[in-house]
Amino acid sequence: MPGLTPENAEPLLRAEGLYKHLYQPSLAFWRARQPRTILRDIHLSIQPGERIGLAGVSGAGKTTLLNLLLALNGADAGSITCQGRPVRPASTRALRWYRRLVQYIPQDPASSLDPRMSVRELIREPLVRLSVEGHHGRRIDEALDRVGLDQKFLGYRPGALSGGQAQRVAIARAVALRPRLLLADEPLSGLDLPVRAKVMQLFNDMSRLDDTAFLIISHDLSVMPRLCERTLILHDGAIIEDRPTAALFGAPEHDHTRALVRAAHPDLAIMMPAPAANASYPVA
């Protein structure tokens, strides 16, 4: 709706008070299983067209949160809504409306590309499965063009693609659906510099022209300034910072964030005070 701002617009997606626990078996059979909190009190709001980064080291809870947002798992507490409708694990048919609106770009394209299918079939498959109306051939051609792949690749199978080409096919599968929100897990991984630039331009164009929102998940904070207007830092299952990306890089508030920024941009180290002695540092 014209005139709405991020402050007064209805969020495209909202998560409120999410908790997720992992129940570990007790060493003593007479004791109850002990829960370990993986996510704690997660609040997240995504507006149409926003480009948001979610960064954190391995084990911070990024994958767990992603699985909740994809409705693959349910939260132990809290709620997720999309355009005001509740989102929770359900049958494929019951979630069809959500899958049309929210798409996922996996970090490992090999996990999402059926080796028996051609690129054309791979891009068409979600259009058919989600009962998308309209001219599928036109959507397939447009998606392939937007990710910078020649039409000759339509007949290729995944085994004939390089890692970067497979990643672009995975992106094309999602783009063909014209989703309102893209959840992208390390979307620039394995891409050479010219292709990285093209994918970043595609994401920026989709945000600006199509009002598509993005949640970019990465352990590498260095990609955030080029892709994201806003960045969230996930640490030990909690969001410890949620700020405009420029402000977060310019003056990190949390010691852990400061350590991440220093690791991503060593040239900024002289501009920031050193983290406290007990700060957690990213591991490779």
TrEMBL record:
InterPro entries referenced in this protein's UniProt entry, alphabetically: AAA+_ATPase, ABC_transp_ATP-bind, ABC_transporter-like_ATP-bd, ABC_transporter-like_CS, P-loop_NTPase
A GO biological-process term: transmembrane transport
Residue span(s) of domain ABC transporter: 13-261
Keyword ATP-binding carried by entry: yes
One Pfam family from the record: ABC_tran
Gene Ontology MF term list: ATP binding; ATP hydrolysis activity
Keywords of the record: ATP-binding, Nucleotide-binding, Transport
Domain of life: Bacteria
Keyword ATP-binding: yes
PANTHER family assigned: ABC TRANSPORTER, ATP-BINDING PROTEIN, TRANSPORT ATP-BINDING PROTEIN
Name of this protein: Peptide/nickel transport system ATP-binding protein
Organism for this UniProt entry: Kushneria avicenniae
